[in-house]
Amino acid sequence: MRAFSNPVPDEKVSRLILKHYFRDLSEAVNSDVIVVGAGPSGLVCAFTLADEGYRVTVLDRRLAPGGGIWGGAMGFNKVVLQKDVVGILEESGIPFEEDEDALVVSAPLFASKLIARASAHPRVKLLNLVTAVDLHVTGERVTGVVVNQSAIEMEGLHVDPMVLRALAVLDATGHEAVLVTLYSRRTGLSLVRESFMNAERGEEDVVANTRMVAPGLFVAGMAANNVAGGCRMGPIFGGMLLSGKKAAYLIDEYLKGVAKEVSG
């Protein structure tokens, strides 16, 4: 007796993967917002904006999205959050344990739940193994990103990239602040770079430093501290979640302003 009544032959597997992936990629060529970096701040920003009706493309250069969550601290796969973000955990279905006036969560579960909430959203396209290599600029506004396959970039092959367009772009690339660094090389924008580790101060810094750095270009998460000189904070992630929420609010306000300009 066969185990499967509806077997799927190899050629159909290939055809369906190509059909559905390139459908998503084609739709991602034009979106409202591009989020580069699928760590906690980028993912929270993405699904928050999607909940408001925006079409969001999330790009991550790695095989596994989730940023620096997975390993916890030194490979001990627990992370800590402030009680202030309990609402975000609850609405994302992330279980937690309250201990010593803080929240402790499983790092793999925390990462996977955030990824699932973003990637399952009908207005979000999440593309991993895609690297942002440059910015697209129209006049004074950042209007998209230039991308290539991560494997091509890692091998240093001379293969031309493609452009994905959007009305706003978020740099959530972590310590490297990839997009803002690219922008600063062309414009002379001053970057302070991150300071020493101090979790309590760094968690405040990451929210305060979340901002628009140029028309259409926003920064959140550890990238924001790398741009403005905030402290590192280690395996505590409440600031990342609030940074993503703040970035979504700022982008929403910016896009409403752009819409008024167009209609006016």
Automatic annotation (TrEMBL):
<keyword id="KW-0520">NAD</keyword>
<dbReference type="GO" id="GO:0005506">
    <property type="term" value="F:iron ion binding"/>
</dbReference>
<keyword id="KW-0408">Iron</keyword>
<keyword id="KW-0479">Metal-binding</keyword>
<dbReference type="InterPro" id="IPR002922">
    <property type="entry name" value="Thi4_fam"/>
</dbReference>
<protein>
    <recommendedName>
        <fullName>Thiamine thiazole synthase</fullName>
        <ecNumber>2.4.2.59</ecNumber>
    </recommendedName>
</protein>
<comment type="pathway">
    <text>Cofactor biosynthesis; thiamine diphosphate biosynthesis.</text>
</comment>
<feature type="binding site">
    <location>
        <begin position="158"/>
        <end position="160"/>
    </location>
    <ligand>
        <name>NAD(+)</name>
    </ligand>
</feature>
<dbReference type="GO" id="GO:0009228">
    <property type="term" value="P:thiamine biosynthetic process"/>
</dbReference>
<keyword id="KW-0808">Transferase</keyword>
<feature type="binding site">
    <location>
        <position position="160"/>
    </location>
    <ligand>
        <name>Fe cation</name>
    </ligand>
</feature>
<dbReference type="GO" id="GO:0016763">
    <property type="term" value="F:pentosyltransferase activity"/>
</dbReference>
<feature type="binding site" description="in other chain">
    <location>
        <position position="222"/>
    </location>
    <ligand>
        <name>NAD(+)</name>
    </ligand>
</feature>
<dbReference type="GO" id="GO:0009229">
    <property type="term" value="P:thiamine diphosphate biosynthetic process"/>
</dbReference>
<feature type="binding site" description="in other chain">
    <location>
        <position position="175"/>
    </location>
    <ligand>
        <name>Fe cation</name>
    </ligand>
</feature>
<keyword id="KW-0784">Thiamine biosynthesis</keyword>
<feature type="binding site" description="in other chain">
    <location>
        <position position="68"/>
    </location>
    <ligand>
        <name>NAD(+)</name>
    </ligand>
</feature>
<dbReference type="InterPro" id="IPR022828">
    <property type="entry name" value="Thi4_prok"/>
</dbReference>
<comment type="similarity">
    <text>Belongs to the THI4 family.</text>
</comment>
<dbReference type="InterPro" id="IPR036188">
    <property type="entry name" value="FAD/NAD-bd_sf"/>
</dbReference>
<feature type="binding site" description="in other chain">
    <location>
        <position position="41"/>
    </location>
    <ligand>
        <name>NAD(+)</name>
    </ligand>
</feature>
<comment type="function">
    <text>Involved in the biosynthesis of the thiazole moiety of thiamine. Catalyzes the conversion of NAD and glycine to adenosine diphosphate 5-(2-hydroxyethyl)-4-methylthiazole-2-carboxylate (ADT), an adenylated thiazole intermediate, using free sulfide as a source of sulfur.</text>
</comment>
<dbReference type="Pfam" id="PF01946">
    <property type="entry name" value="Thi4"/>
</dbReference>
<feature type="binding site">
    <location>
        <position position="232"/>
    </location>
    <ligand>
        <name>glycine</name>
    </ligand>
</feature>
<dbReference type="GO" id="GO:0052837">
    <property type="term" value="P:thiazole biosynthetic process"/>
</dbReference>
<comment type="subunit">
    <text>Homooctamer; tetramer of dimers.</text>
</comment>
